[in-house]
Amino acid sequence: KAAGRNRAVLYHDQMDQQLQTQHWIEGELRKALKADGQLSVAYQPLVAASSQQTVGAEALVRWTHPTLGRVSPARFIPVAETSGLIEELGTFVLRQACKMGVRHQGKRIAVNISPTQLRNPAFPQALFSVLRETGMSPENLELEITESILLDDEKTANSALTAFREKGIRIALDDFGTGYSSLNYLKRYPVDRIKIDQSFVRQLNEGHASVAIVQALVSLAHAMNMDVTAEGVETSEQARILTQLRCNTLQGYLFSHPIDEAEISAWFAEPEY
Ligand code: C2E
Ligand code: CA
Ligand code: CA
Ligand code: CA
């Protein structure tokens, strides 16, 4: 019983610490949004499987804290979401990405949109005003959304996605295949592309079940007039299999890590892998 209580106390302490850390990160992130230079956007090339041409890039937020150094988005995005900072952070990324994209007409720029952003009925207007302000063409913008977004507020999400598509903006379902009702989303929401999750790509070997799964996902997507991107491509063997399975676009360390704005500009001009 005593041991049980000790465990409970320990658990409590850990929760306490976790809460304090969360709170601290939130404060630091708030400062970072005001300060200059801590937050930036990195871009990872999107490569056409058939031609190996760079067709665009995914924007990924980066945070370099003055004492902690690099903080992973996996760490601070959840905090931004629960603290209400995600809207400001999301707008920062969107604006940066559009300013970059406008200088590379014809390249597709993909931006991650968090559930909280999409749930906000004011979001579409905010996004359109960033497009107007930067001069970014809607046809070159793609929004990456995750399945969980759509679960809790179907109506708001659906009307936002419809408004985006009417302007020519494209919608991609991120981390596809990891949610429990992936297939339901395909019939319910207007989607242009699925991004097959890294977990399937990592296991791609001749004879592995992942090959059959990816093959089925590609057939399904193509039958519904959707494109397919495979993410987390690290080896040329994976790229070969994914190309053979008719994935449209590949993304991963094999081609490039996420790189800064100057590097992606050079990359768009002349990819070097
Ligand atoms: P995600 O959208 O699924 O992004 C892909 C993640 O995989 C990125 O991690 C990317 O750097 C990493 N990656 C790319 N190629 C490879 C590879 O070949 N192998 C492996 N192992 N990993 C690869 P990152 O940048 O740390 O971002 C993590 C997650 O944080 C993202 O997952 C996304 O959910 C979220 N995130 C990042 N930037 C933003 C943003 O601006 N807004 C929102 N809402 N979320 C963001
Ligand atoms: Ca993404
Ligand atoms: Ca993903
Ligand atoms: Ca993810």
UniProtKB/TrEMBL annotation:
It comes from the Bacteria. The keyword Nucleotide-binding does not apply. Residues 22-272 form the EAL domain. Keywords: Membrane, Transmembrane, Transmembrane helix. One of its GO terms (molecular function) is catalytic activity. This is Bifunctional diguanylate cyclase/phosphodiesterase. It comes from Devosia pacifica. The chain holds residues 460 to 732 of 738 of the full protein.
